[in-house]
Design a protein that fits this description.
The protein is α/β, with parallel strands linked by helices. It is 34% helix and 22% strand. The longest helix is centred in the first third of the chain and has 24 residues.
Length: 446
């Protein structure tokens, strides 16, 4: 489109799309200047607006106001907005009646089937459906984008009903074998194998894509359980160590895992690599040699606002907190590589979270709590600390601040306490069981 100017001659027609496809993004376009430039060099401007109706402010970006120029053709379709795959129903708009007559003459005598006609008439009556679709896409597109990026994939921003992303070339075939089919964009000009397109669907459907993609990318089928807490010091490390010992005593091969740990002191493995001491204790409980894969990221605070960043046991350098927050998403492939490698050697992985999953100011780029749980499809046990008081408020408040899909991962709540303290909780449990989101409760007596 930028090449269309009066000095350019000999072009019969020029096509453009709004929003652009791929990646269904939209940039302000001065259609009047493009139309005038095309007219000046004798070029027919063809604008594809089939995906434009997905934009809430679509009326502001259409080129329909320039149809009187005569050298403009706008393409529209019912099949995109109304999701009528296989029903061929679209139309062209132009002020050039001679051109429209020529197009009609080149087409089939009966260009639209009776089924398509009936579907089109029914669609025109569904104004509420259109608003519902726009609202769904506006809500789910950011979540789908974040979920795919959390898997370590490159996702291009978009505004229509699908996203374009880059993944390992083998992902498409791996997903096909698992019953899911992705639209390959390998034949798109400028793209190559490994580029895919996926529709923005409902939350459960998008979540299923995340789960299937994890498996399709080669994630081990080792089972896992994750312990998250209502705060730091809630007993996550101790509970994970206990689970490692129990599973090991039951005859399972088990290993601990924590994607990111923050501790001033570290443990040095036989290979001379650094890892968090909590995972060392958990490994000992599991009866296995401490392995840096159990803690791929270790942050050693060096000041109030910065830490030494250690990745896979080796120092990456000193980073201010703000700089680390900006880059930590780039470490997801290394986290998954460590987890996947470890999971290939054991039956069960016991995963420890950090802090609290309800720290909503940190959730956007989370790689250690619910963000990691989504990556590896882990069920979650939420731990509170009764000794600090308000344990029921801790647990219920944490759950209440989670997103519905995160809340669904929680299989139970627990607290580490003495037997006497447990007996004092009995009256509260009757009220607790009536709460809709947290009915399962366990006590871990010390």
């Amino acid at each position: 489109m930028r090449s269309v100017r009066p000095s350019v001659r000999g072009w019969t027609w020029c096509a453009s799309a709004s929003p652009t496809t791929p990646p269904a993004s939209w940039r302000p376009c001065r259609w009047w200047s493009r139309s005038s430039a095309a007219a000046a060099c004798g070029t027919l401007l063809v604008v594809d607006e089939c995906f434009l109706d997905f934009l809430p402010d679509h009326a502001l970006h259409t080129a329909k106001g320039l149809l009187g120029e005569g050298n403009l053709v706008i393409l529209e379709a019912f099949t995109k907005l109304y999701g009528m795959a296989g029903v061929r129903l679209g139309y062209a708009l132009s002020a050039d009646t001679s051109l429209l007559e020529q197009m009609q003459a080149c087409g089939q005598p009966w260009g639209v089937s009776s089924l398509a006609q009936a579907a089109g008439l029914a669609a025109l009556e569904e104004t509420a459906y259109v608003e519902k679709v726009r609202a769904l896409i506006a809500e789910q597109r950011p979540r789908l984008t974040a979920g795919l990026r959390a898997l370590g994939l490159r996702v291009l921003d978009g505004r229509a009903n699908y996203l374009l992303f880059q993944a390992p070339e083998t992902l498409g075939e791996a997903l096909r074998q698992r019953g899911a089919v992705l639209r390959s964009c390998a034949n798109y000009p400028g793209l190559s194998a490994g580029w895919y397109r996926t529709a923005v669907r409902t939350a459960p459907e998008n979540e299923q894509l995340f789960k299937t993609s994890c498996g399709g990318a080669g994630m081990s089928k080792a089972k896992c359980i994750m312990v998250q807490g209502t705060m730091s010091g809630a007993g996550k490390s101790l509970l994970c160590a206990a689970l490692c010992r129990i599973f090991a005593q039951d005859g399972y091969r088990v290993a601990p895992f924590k994607s990111q740990n923050m501790a001033l002191n570290s443990f040095v493995t036989r290979d001379g690599l650094e890892m968090g001491r909590a995972q060392v204790v958990q490994a000992q409980a599991a009866g296995v040699e401490p392995d840096v894969r159990m803690n791929p990221i270790l942050l050693k605070p060096s000041s109030d606002v910065g830490s030494q960043v250690i990745v896979n046991g080796e120092v990456r350098g000193q980073m201010p907190a703000a700089a680390y927050f900006k880059m930590k998403r780039a470490l997801i492939p290394e986290i998954l590589s460590a987890y996947n490698s470890l999971a290939g050697t054991v039956d069960i992985i016991v995963i420890e979270g950090a802090g609290s999953p309800a720290e909503i100011n940190l959730k956007a780029d989370d790689i250690v709590n619910m963000g990691l749980a989504r990556l590896v499809d882990a069920p979650v046990l939420l731990a509170g600390d009764i000794d600090r008081g308000g344990v029921f408020a801790q647990l219920y408040g944490t759950v209440a601040l989670l997103e519905p899909e995160e809340r669904a991962r929680i299989r139970g709540c627990s607290s580490i306490n003495s037997a006497a303290m447990w007996r004092s909780c009995a009256p509260a449990l009757l009220c607790w069981k009536r709460k809709p989101t947290c009915r399962c409760w366990g006590s871990c007596p010390t």
